[in-house]
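ESCALATION

Customer reports they have been waiting on this structure for their group meeting. Please prioritize. Original submission:
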Amino acid sequence: MTVHDAITRAHREEWARVVAVLARRFGDLDIAEEAAAEAFATAVERWPADGVPPNPGAWLTTTAHRKAIDRIRRESRREAKQQEAGMWQEDPPESVGAVEDGRLRLVFVCCHPALASDARVALTLRMVGGLTVAEIARAFLVQEGAMARRITRAKTKIKAARIPYRVPAAEDLPARVAGVLTVLFLVFNEGYLATGPDTDPVRQDLTAEAIRLTRLLRELLPQDGEVAGLLALMLLTEARRSARVSPGGELVALDEQDRTAWDAGLITEGHRLVRERLGSGQAPGRYQLLAAINAVHTSARDFRDTDWSQVVALYDQLVCLDRSPVVALNRAIALGELDGPAVALASVDRLAQPLDGYHAFHAARAELLRRLGRTAESQAAYDRAIDLAGNAAETAALTRRRKQLP
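Update from on-call: job pushed to the front of the queue and completed.
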């Protein structure tokens, strides 16, 4: 492994840990993020000459801690800053409360109810997931500048309102869990299909961390159906990871995947969770319905064996809970397998205004137009999808599909 590879791996594996430690110790997300970033910058400078330390995480945490102290000392209001930090020589005694894992605790802190919902998600993706502003902007389908301002406003509000770095008590967890689930879902999605033309198409570090944190959350809230549903959804999706990218680096669509390469253990666990929720007698939530849809897909031995009527019926329930255009798009795609491409295209075209900047919308149109024999329109839709594609693997797959047009 090269030094560059070691630094990249350390950033993926240690960023959230370092930020969580500093946030708890200094009670300031700005200090935590900037000191962590400076520590990684120092690693870029020193590791090529000094070698990769035996314990990169400890080295980065210690370095970031020193950077944070240096920053506090440079502040004009030194005494106030030192008091706010609780002094840095020793960790202040603190109960970990209901959440003992530092990164999961940081998720709950970033998801404080004083912040707007979209700000909570964006801030947590940045602080815990380590995603860049550009990656987060893609997840929200907004411009990078707008996302940067959103994150800045969230940090400013935390400071202005003097929101402390505190662990939620056990009785407060259920009220905070919805925002946390949204964050974990988006972190997993970024790992499952990473954004950016120069990134790996699949970031297993992010999917693994999202699954790990969701398992911890399920231990805390074993009766929460949506926590179980999200975990099932992640497991059933992660089970297909090894079949999603070809040896040549091209994204492989569900209908072309080698299903023998799917992880049977993850599928079994995911199906068990879905059955448990169905047997509870409680009305399913968003994540439980998404997990059930994935259970149908992973139950089919072949794409042609998929029970599309059941998939569409589940999407019919989902659109009652989540009226987002992306959910409507996915329902329309499933409808195309059940009722044909003409019916599906009519549904897809109604989503043109909200989804014009979303590559999957144009990719879906291209495929439906191809099936209808409208080649010229399909080519144009593929061209638009290729322009908007998030990474090289998607671009390669779309380009191949376009070249296959008659």
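Sent to customer with the following note: The chain is about 70% helix and 0% strand.
Escalation resolved.
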